[in-house]
Amino acid sequence: MHPEQIKILLSMIQKLIRRGAAHNLQKIVNKSHAADVAAVFSFLSPKDQIFLFHLIDKTDKKAEVLSELGETEFLVIAEDMPAEEIVKIFEEMASDDVADLLQLLPDEKSKEILDLMEKEDSAEVEGLLRFEDDTAGGIMVPDFIALKEETTVADAITALQTKEKDVEMAFYLYVVDDYDHLVGVISLRQLVVARPMTKLQDIMTTNVVTVHSNMDQEEVAKVVARYNILAVPVVDDQNVLLGIVTVDDVIDIIREEATEDILRMAGAGDELVETQSVLRSTRTRLPWLFASWIGGIVAFYIIDHFQGALTKVLYLAAFIPIIMGMGGSVGTQSATIVVRGLAMGRFNVKQILPVVLKELTIGGLLGFFYGLLLGIVAQYRYDLWGLGIVVGFSVLCSMTVAATVGSCVPLILARIKVDPAVATGSFVTTSIDILSVLIYFQIATVLLHL
Amino acid sequence: MHPEQIKILLSMIQKLIRRGAAHNLQKIVNKSHAADVAAVFSFLSPKDQIFLFHLIDKTDKKAEVLSELGETEFLVIAEDMPAEEIVKIFEEMASDDVADLLQLLPDEKSKEILDLMEKEDSAEVEGLLRFEDDTAGGIMVPDFIALKEETTVADAITALQTKEKDVEMAFYLYVVDDYDHLVGVISLRQLVVARPMTKLQDIMTTNVVTVHSNMDQEEVAKVVARYNILAVPVVDDQNVLLGIVTVDDVIDIIREEATEDILRMAGAGDELVETQSVLRSTRTRLPWLFASWIGGIVAFYIIDHFQGALTKVLYLAAFIPIIMGMGGSVGTQSATIVVRGLAMGRFNVKQILPVVLKELTIGGLLGFFYGLLLGIVAQYRYDLWGLGIVVGFSVLCSMTVAATVGSCVPLILARIKVDPAVATGSFVTTSIDILSVLIYFQIATVLLHL
Predict the structure, then answer these.
(1) Do the Cβ atoms of B299 and A273 come within 8 Å?
(2) Which residues between 345 and 374 in chain A have a beta carbon less than 8 angstroms from any beta carbon of chain B?
């Protein structure tokens, strides 16, 4: 459904809610795709969300909608429901989704639910909860089809028919040896076109792309993207098949990680907080601004220190914003290019020098251009000999330094295994602010003999 | 292959190139996965890239490597090869990839190649070139399997066996009526478990998620992500099936679009330019900085205008950086949250007011906190009655205004269908710089009676 159609669905549902037309609403939510119903939820009040959710007839549809909901909406629904009812819905859901949702609930409620779940299901979910949230183990589904090497194609097809339908996206069959070690993979396509009596070991691909259960989810996503595969098997140290990560989850990870990077660079937290309360948003953003504040205070003491110079040439104050602004802008450019380049795997972290040298040169060229421009304006405005040279030269220096700092910092952070996005935003901006002011007043004092 | 393994492969290849060990190199490139070979290319010199490429034995492997290469690397290889040889490789490639690569080549060479290609292939590619680059039509592959409603499962399996292997990721079969209108879809999974004599119309899903050929690729990606499907069929106005967009291409789009958004917000162009030359990078980044420059000049004239006040209370100058910095930081936070929220489809563009009101409140709360902090520091440092109140109140006002502007601008742009990421970076930062300085000096003049 296109965004416009979602809007139409939304306004239709809102109208029916206002009228209290439960019967019509019931028809609509049961006919619409679960993903569309979930998309509508975020625009409704908690009360309406609960009302609408209970109009869904089938438990498996409820499960689909629930696994598509955002955190906030899920908690609204879950807090209102007794554990027994949640368990019924969870039993229709893939175990990785159940594990994710359980982690959102208060410990007590999630324990209650695990106790109520059927042994087999809860063991699966608890197995997933063992792994770190952001690793291959934490995002994999344990529902895959693994067969022995000697199995024939015909038997494999029978196995497909008998396996319950909750195997997610089964487009590959995995082949394991007697000790569950992964030895090969076959796509459904290969299976369909092979002769019935062929053994799997004769048609399987043995060069299987795998990921270890403790690999970071971002790396897992890169592997799936690089090899254009629809699912990647997750193995342990002994190459025993534990589960698979499917491409639909990889898409969610890529979007999440991009959001995380974007927000971190802007110092706005880790995840979209627009549905959170005002106070929670404020709390998330408050500490990130502290770096800016410290930077401002240091800049303040620097200017204070150069008060003598400022007294003699008052005009100097008017150029503070432009020199800081130009340095900040070019530094942000450099930092962003490097952070994103690192995330996309375009840089080799070992080769810091060539990248930094290139940014330094670019910063210098840009600084030369804008410095010249500013110098001319300043000279024309004040006609004070030397002021044009001071501000022009300050822009040149501050932009060159900014591009260097902007590219250096994320590369160094990546090398010492700190997420470059986190520190770059606040640290780069703050240090460039300080350096720009310092460079400017230092140059002014020396060149104008103040 | 994990990043570490790629590094090992790279250093092995570099060592062998230095030694001129062509035979060993040949073994390695032919044994390694095409995606891994392509990953290595970006770290080699153009000369070595060409050398290595010609060591690949099989044409289909060459095709795989070529379609995985970055733009720069592809052009290095293509410029060195006669059109005849390129055609041979292109014939092994999916037609959407061929169309993408052709667009990178100079017009003359791409025409020459199209002329040389076999009629059927070149018609397919030219068909794709008709569509806009960034639309569903431009990214779809025309290689799909479409069968009639009355076809039996057994015949469908035969069709799968006879269709050439270059159908990309065939995990769905599409069902069309006599006029090629799309009427249903069947997954391979459904096909495998159905009885041989069943007609497709009895097992097909009729509620097919489709996209129109002129839908923007970003929307296409959202559709695939929302419905967790592996491929989405592309149709024209009459619902005639034209092609499919597969999930592996969607992953690339999501990564590209995220990169585009991140870079645009930082005013650093549209795509990663780190492989471009210094001059080209400088040219890309130069115009984006002009907004900052203008902002700085306006700020300069504002301060210049308040020179009288500045002469009386010189300390005012020292607070310029912190007041601008705090405004800029909170404005960037707000703008980023809204831009990313829009990209992720979390906001309804029609509901501008609640979002902006929320940001205004958050900006006010953050401004109150940091304003108070700064007021105390200023009062303690100068002991000039009123200065603490002036700077504290300025931080409060400037942060509130910044959060409001930062959230308003992207929402308004999205509403008038301008990409919010493009304009937000430069426009928001610049206007916040100007507003902060103006607010600060206005407050100072009034409260201190200057």
Answers:
(1) no
(2) 345-348, 355, 358, 361-362, 365-366, 369-370, 373-374
